[in-house]
Design a protein that fits this description.
Elements (H helix, E strand, L loop, with lengths): L2 E2 L10 H8 L12 H13 L4 E5 L2 H12 L4 E6 L3 H4 L4 H6 L2 E5 L8 H5 L12 E8 L12 H14 L2 E6 L2 H8 L5 H5 L2 E5 L10 E5 L1 H13 L8 H13 L4 H15 L7 E2 L6 E5 L6 H11 L1 E2 L1 E2 L4 E5 L6 H12 L1
Parallel strand pairs: 1-11, 3-4, 3-5, 5-6, 6-7
Antiparallel strand pairs: 2-8, 7-8, 9-10, 10-13, 12-13
Helix pairs in contact: 1-11, 2-11, 3-10, 12-14
The structure holds pyridoxal-5'-phosphate.
Length: 338
């Protein structure tokens, strides 16, 4: 039994999800007539109170399309230093959007109105780039799966309104936040100009992310998707998995969170674990002493049949997911503590 906690992207489609995929009606999405893609896009947009949606190959693509569509060359994007759009998208902000980045250093990767305000340039100062877009991440991956609440986001929205800034959400794990806060999805459409959500993470789909926003914005993003070679044909196979996941795999995320907390309790008993980040959702990050490199520790874990990833010189990350069961938790406890 391999315990694979490298990421929540490693899940296999369930038999019922495969069934939904195989029986999906298909068309040519580039021509706009794949009925399953259209149904997924309409469903997700309605769910979040947005006008339209665009189904894409990855969360990197949906984030990058959003940034590309919202900005012009020479604009500046404000995000946290820990954010995925900065750390893990190949420098795409500069490549795809020809935009610069201002990095804030929030608590566990979370921005506040004050932090954002510090990074807004004076629009009358011609030395400076034009501050244009703020990107939030919810939950924050590198912050250990911490999340924003709607009041926190509303305060940021208000600042953006005052300053004429656009607000994008990298919601790769947004549903993990929402099952914890109990907040309604529809409220999100009013808070953000655009939202990216991943279907291939906790929701258990093999592939796919959605970009949500106003109809005009999505029309423009669809042009850029084509330009990047991201137009796809009978993508309904993949969209069917997404529809299935939105119907069946959201509420169960709570189980992933409770199993993550159980992992925290196991780690708590290990002498080499110096610190465990608060476990708010499905991500567990812990710190090793200066004498142990995370990369070496991960190799040792691997030999025991436990897979995690090195998340910094002395940090290790585990992510719980659909294919990680109570049985795995028990096995993990016996492997690590005996
Ligand atoms: C996984 C992830 C993405 C998107 O990743 P892809 O692998 O490109 O789908 C975006 N943002 C965050 C925070 C993520 O964890």
């Amino acid at each position: 039994m391999i315990i694979d906690l490298r990421s929540d992207t490693i899940t296999q489609p369930t038999p019922a999800m495969r069934e939904a995929m195989f029986s999906a009606p298909l068309g040519d999405d580039v021509l706009g007539d794949d009925p399953t893609v259209n149904a997924l896009e309409a469903k997700a947009a309605a769910m979040f109170g947005m006008e339209a949606a665009l189904f894409c190959a990855s969360g990197t693509m949906t984030n990058q399309l959003a940034i590309r569509t919202h900005t012009r060359p020479g604009n500046d994007v404000i995000c946290d230093y820990l954010s995925h759009v900065y750390q893990y998208e190949g420098g795409g902000i500069s490549v795809n959007a020809l935009a610069s980045v201002s990095l804030a250093h929030g608590e566990r990767g979370k921005l506040t109105p004050d932090l954002i305000r510090e990074h807004i340039y004076n629009p009358n100062d011609s030395h400076k780039p034009v501050s244009r877009l703020v990107v939030l991440e919810n939950t924050v991956n590198k912050g250990g799966g911490c999340y924003y609440t709607i009041p926190e986001i509303s305060a940021i929205r208000q600042l953006c309104n005052e300053q004429g800034l656009i607000l994008h959400l990298d919601g790769a794990r947004l549903f993990n936040a929402l099952v914890e806060t109990g907040e309604p999805t529809e409220a999100y459409g009013k808070l953000f100009n655009s939202i990216s959500i991943c279907l291939s993470k906790g929701l258990g789909c093999p592939v796919g992310s959605l970009l949500l926003g106003k109809a005009d914005f999505i029309r423009q993003a669809r042009r850029f998707r084509k330009l990047m070679g991201g137009g796809w044909r009978q993508a309904g196979f993949l969209a069917a998995a997404g529809i299935y996941a939105l119907d069946h795999h959201v509420d169960r995320l709570k189980q992933d969170h409770s199993r993550a907390r159980k992992i925290g309790a196991i780690l708590n008993q290990l002498p080499e674990v110096q610190e465990i980040y608060p476990i708010d959702t499905n991500i567990v990050i812990f710190r090793l002493p200066e004498t142990i490199l995370a990369a070496d520790y991960v190799t040792q874990l691997d030999a025991k049949g436990i897979r995690g990833i090195s998340f910094g010189k002395h940090l290790v990350r585990f992510v719980t997911h659909l294919d990680f069961t109570d049985e795995h938790v028990e096995k993990m406890a016996s492997l690590l503590t005996t």
